[in-house]
């Protein structure tokens, strides 16, 4: 159920209906059933129907709202969804198997999801989903928030915790999407380590901005997927992740994946498998060809990561011989690694970077002010198939 309290009615009551300076946005406050076994999504949908056209939908402070079915915000047109309490995913792993997403933002033009108090939380209730997945890796878990074919979307100031799978995905030709001042964390619980909890998967889209973000997870912090174009990441801290990654790309037979015009700056990478990198599949009929062009990593601080930078052109294969028989034909062009500082972990010491470029493709990469050391004080860089004068000396051949 919901409480419908349009501001226009309030102004009529208080005799201010004709004051042109007042904002007449309708407001609906969603009432929680207060029962974890009850699905509050129908109440949310009703509120959107009443107040979604330019209005405000409020989740009250101090309340927990049960999300037991997909929350599709269709009908939200230039609306604001204001989360002051907690939205929590149900325990129903059977229902959620195979569902694409928990929150579906599809075909929306103009929406803001935020909190004014700073207390808003979206709890993905990850543990039961991680447990099922650990026992059965074919179990298909939902993304927490999925943006598809939408524009002018703002998600700000919220905390997202314990996603069952990926936290945020944007794709389907979406544009002008902003993620700002968010905290994402997936914390191991009861001895269960979360898997595939990417912070942000940016697919087919233009002008996506990710800024002022903290992510603690166990997979990619940010992944630029096929079709990502004009993506900016600024002021992000990633802890425990697989790093900030282009890819993986070229995994599908006959695919022609592209990632273009990406700029990452002011990234602090803590205890990650790598700080930044590119993941490409090998060549051959079972894979495709990728193009990565005009990508810049600038101002990256490395704290205890395996590699500061990594390029893989045989991603996902355990056989070097197989990769050699079908080398990648992908293009890596105008990729810049600038103003790096800090130290890697002991994992690959004395190697700080492993750059295995496509053997049958193109690789133009450039390093400047790359001030990274391993714990031993050395800074060895492994590289293969680099076509440009990359600005760093190579200590041997790369792999991967």
From TrEMBL:
GO function terms (MF aspect): polygalacturonase activity
Leader sequence residues: 1-17
Biological processes, Gene Ontology terms: cell wall organization; pectin catabolic process
Keyword flag Hydrolase: yes
Coiled coil: none
Active site, UniProt feature: 242
Localization per record: Secreted
Pfam families from the UniProt entry: Glyco_hydro_28
GO CC annotation terms, alphabetical: extracellular region
UniProt-listed InterPro entries: Glyco_hydro_28 (IPR000743), PbH1 (IPR006626), Pectin_lyas_fold (IPR012334), Pectin_lyase_fold/virulence (IPR011050)
Alphabetized PROSITE patterns for the sequence: POLYGALACTURONASE
Record SUPFAM superfamilies: Pectin lyase-like (SSF51126)
Keywords: Carbohydrate metabolism, Cell wall biogenesis/degradation, Glycoprotein, Glycosidase, Hydrolase, Polysaccharide degradation, Repeat, Secreted, Signal
Record-stated family: Belongs to the glycosyl hydrolase 28 family.
Role summary: Pectinolytic enzyme involved in the degradation of xylogalacturonan (xga), a galacturonan backbone heavily substituted with xylose, and which is one important component of the hairy regions of pectin. Activity requires a galacturonic acid backbone substituted with xylose.
This protein's name: Unplaced genomic scaffold SPHSTscaffold_72, whole genome shotgun sequence
Organism of this sequence: Sphaerobolus stellatus (strain SS14)
Lineage: Eukaryota, Fungi, Dikarya, Basidiomycota, Agaricomycotina
